[in-house]
Amino acid sequence: MEKGQAIVPLQDTVHYLGYYEFPVSAAVDAANDVYDAYAEHAPEMGENAHSHIVFREKTDLPKNPPKSARRTEIVDAIWRRSKGPVRHICPVDEPHRSYLEKIPLGQQPKIEE
Predict the structure, then answer these.
(1) Tens digit of pLDDT for each residue in 69-95?
(2) Which long-range contacts (CB under 8 A, 24 or more apart) does 59-66 make?
(3) Reduced to 3 states, what is the DSSP secondary structure of residue 27?
């Protein structure tokens, strides 16, 4: 986009369409031998329900622990306890609601056990 060019709201901007929910315990329960995991409250745009998931590497680990695999295990455990997506239109996007509601939200993939 060139400087001074008019912004086309549904073409040149990003819109928040929805979210997934999971209990804070999903993060805590996903801790493993390499990482502790917890949710850190992080309100966004007046919404108190937002959190960041934090992985904290444990101390006194053996040499070359499987860090990548253990991070993946945490993400997988949280994903398995997630529900959604839940549609959400932000107040700033109200003028575009009719268009945004037509965009399908992908369903959470079925996870084979």
Answers:
(1) 999 999 999 999 999 999 999 898 999
(2) 61/34, 65/33, 65/34, 66/34
(3) helix
Confidence category of residue 112, pLDDT binned at 50, 70, 90: low
51 part of a folded domain: yes
Say what the pTM is. Answer: 0.75
Domain that holds residue 31: 23-80
Query: Are 51 and 96 in the same domain?
Result: no
Contact 66, 101 (CB under 8 A): no
**Angle at Cα 82 formed by Cα 80 and Cα 85, nearest 5°?**
130
Give the C-alpha distances (Å, rounded to integers) separating 80 from 23, 68, 99, 109: 11, 18, 31, 10
104 occurs within a structural domain: yes
